[in-house]
Every structure is written in C-alpha cells, then in structure tokens.
Amino acid sequence: MIELEIQILSDRREGLLVELGRTVVANGFTLLRQRLAQDDRGAWLTMIVRGPPERQLALEEELATHSRVRSFECSLFEGGAAPPPASGPAVARAPIAAAPATFAAPASSVPPAGPDVRQVESMLPQIAKDYPRITPWLLTLQRTVAAESREASLLLVGRRTGAWVFKRDYAMGAKLGLADAIKRIGVPALRALATIEQHGEQLHIQNSPLCSPNGHSGCKFFSGYLEGLLGASIEPQNVFVRSLYCRSTGAVECILEISH
Amino acid sequence: MHAHQNYNLLLVVLSYVIAVLGSFTALQLAVGIPNAQTSRQRWMSVLAAGAVMGVGAIWAMHFIAMLACDTGMAVTYNLPRTALSALIAFGACSLGLAVAGSAIFSWSKLVVAGVCMGLGVAGMHYLGMAAMMMGADLSYDVSLVAVSVVIAIVASIAALWLAFNLRGPLQMLGSALVMGVAVCGMHYTGMAAVIFEDNGGQVPANFASGLRGNNLGMSIFVVAVAMLLIVLAVNYLRQQRRSQLSI
C-alpha cells in the first residue's frame, strides 16, 4: 500500500469532496484525511489517500481529467503529519499523463513503478507521426528507460496512444457496451499494430513484436493502448486490461483480458 | 376511371440519390450527437441532423419522386400541407436521432428511434400526398400502406444501427444507402398503394394557387446544394480537427 498526497484546485467547493472522493474510492483507495479551503483562485482540496500502488496511475489519470479539477498535484505522502495548508503552486491542468511529472522530478520520491514521463512525452510526437508503424519507437523506449520505469512508461505511452487513436478514428458514434466496444473498436484498432484474435473479452496477440522471449514488456503497451482506446468509448469509462500470458515470460502467445 | 402512374426512370434514380445524399449528410451530423459537451451543442446537433434528414433526405426525395410520377393530370400542391409535411419529417427525425444518440447504445433505444424515424418518413409521405391538388380523388390499399410503414421502420432501424453501432467506412456509407432504401422503399410502396380516381376534372378551388412542379424543382435544387455544402463543411472541419489532435 502507498499513501499519496493529492492537491486539487477547483472553481467551486460545493460537492467537490463528494465527487472526487467517489473517484478515489472507485480506484481502490481509502481517503485518510482531507482539507478544503477557499482562496481568491478557487477551492483547494488536499487529500491523503491510501491504496494499491498499481492503481496509482489510474487514479491520477482520472483525477487529472476530472471535469471539476482545474489543477492537480500528486506526490507520495511521507510521514503521518497532518496535511499541509491548502495552498500551493497553481500548475496548469495536467493532460492525462502529465500529472506524474510533478512527483517524478526528485529522485528520492520517485515511486518504483512510476513512468519516465520526460522520455514518454518526447517520444509521443514521433509515435503520432509514424503510427501505426511504431514498433521501433516502442522498442527504443523499452531499452532507454530505467528498468524500474519500464512497465509504467509503456503503459503510459499505450494509454496516450490509445486515447489519441480513439479520438482520431473512432469517436463518431454512440457509446457502446464493453463487448461491442471490443469488437467494433478494440479489435480493428489493435489489428493495425499486431496480429490478433478475439475470444470474447480476451484478445490473443500472436508474435507480439514487443514481447520477445526473455524480454521485459509484460504486454504493458498493449494493455495501456486498449485502456486508452476503450475507456473513452464505453460507459462507465473504467476499463481494466490484465495480461494473462505474455511471450516475454515464456507463453506461446500474449493474452489480454479486458473488463470493466 | 383509374389514372395510371408512369415514372421517369432518371428522376426515380435521382430520388434515391437525393435520399442517400441527405441521409449521409444527416448521419454525419448525427454521429456527433454523443460527443456533444453541452446540452446546447447536443440540441444543435440533433436539430441540424433532424433538419437535414427530414427536409433533405425525406421531403426532397418525396417531391423528386412525385415529379417522376406522371398520372396524365395537372397537379399542384397545397402549400400549408406541404410545409407541414416537411415539419413532421423534421420533428420525427430529430426525435429519433436524439434517442438513438443518447448515452449507451441499446436495442430498445434503437427500436424507439427507428419507429420515430419510420413514422416520420411515412407521415411526411401521406401528408405530402394529401397536399396534392388534381382532378382526381385518392384512395389507398390499406395492406400496402401498412407494408410501406413497416419498410420505413425496419430500414430506419437498420440504418441507425449501422450509423451508431459501427465504426469506419461502412458506418457512414452503409447507413446512408440503407436509409435511402427506407425512404424510397416506403415512398414507392406507398405510391403502389394509392389509387387515383378521375373525378371528371373537378379540381379544388385553390388549385391555381398551389405549388407547381417548377417551384418544387427549384426548392429541391436549393436543398440538394445546401446538403452538399454541409457535407463538404463537416468533412473539412473533421479533417482539421483530426490534424490538430495532439497525442
């Protein structure tokens, strides 16, 4: 379990804690303490939350893109001191994945699984330019980021790419149920990147170019890609992708399971 | 004595082309409904798509098809009823598209939306027929009327399913082609149901002040050009948006 300190600036305070508290709980975190204050810039909400480290990125994404959130900061909470006063630097509202940058800077506070946001951000324009022939860029990213950041970085770049592909190619039409979204959006989009087969809510990726035997991918890019792609196309928006088998750990093919 | 209907094949084909063009334009606008950020945006999308579908696809198709039909008698159209027929098509299509484009796609919503659209097509047609002023009395084969309504509803459901549930080229083109079948299938089945009984040349008192074919031709030309411009504008804006999307 990790404890995070999250500081949020919003236009108004009414219902802020309730709305953001729901997001915290929905991501498997528990709200330990909170403080709500008002100044001339708006309402400042500081929350100390505790939850599973693997859900940290998802929580940050949801908070950073929440309609009530104008600016957002998140850092590991160290020590049991009371939450600091609810004021702080007003950073521009973070795009989906930029939020972790605020805590990725000081080396001492880098969480073990945090993405290398700088590397990812510098690579994303190239990925957009060369899409769908992006495997070389992803392999480069795998090699260049530190081992402890590799999975989170691949997950992040996958989410950003998936969300971008959705907006570019699949945004027109009704919100779909999960099964329809996988069939109509997930499968054709992923086929642009790899050879796949659909088996219900599982996708089998054959000869994944990112998951060579003894590699380190763990299918994180494809998991993030599907989460970004499908998260925007269905209601409710929480999509979770789990890697059941991966070639990099000796399986014949990679199998991803998609769920709400 | 029954008057026979003879059709100008070129205008019949043109009526289908107009129905498809109108449906294509309307569905391009309609698939943006679920992406609206505000209720104002949403209603603007609904009304724009409803107007193009109702007036562009259905109303314009109907009157091109009427121009294609020669009964051997002079025909004019009662203006208020003609205008009301366009309004019915607009209202029913707007309602149907609003239902189809709201929240998560489901079969129950699809059926409700398809019934709205199908009844809009049929309502427009039969009111448009009631607007006809000529030296004949009109009667209908009820069973064929029922078939025409069923065609309109079923094909509308199919078109909406394609438009809102699919993605890619089939989504837009396929749905427009099927909606064209809905509109034209309903219309020509409805025309097969009508019997023009010659009443000895007794025309209504306001026959001379009714809309004539050349007026309708000009109106339809304006509608068709407007639809083409909308298609071009929508495609241009979407291309712009795609190129500006940041990853």
TrEMBL record, chain A:
It comes from Dyella tabacisoli. This is 4-vinyl reductase 4VR domain-containing protein.
UniProtKB/TrEMBL annotation, chain B:
Keywords: Membrane, Transmembrane, Transmembrane helix. It comes from the Bacteria. It holds the Pfam family MHYT. InterPro entries: MHYT_dom. The chain crosses the membrane at residues 6-31, 43-64, 84-105, 112-136, 142-164, 176-196, 216-237. One of its GO terms (cellular component) is membrane. Residues 7-197 form the MHYT domain. This is MHYT domain-containing protein. It comes from Dyella tabacisoli.
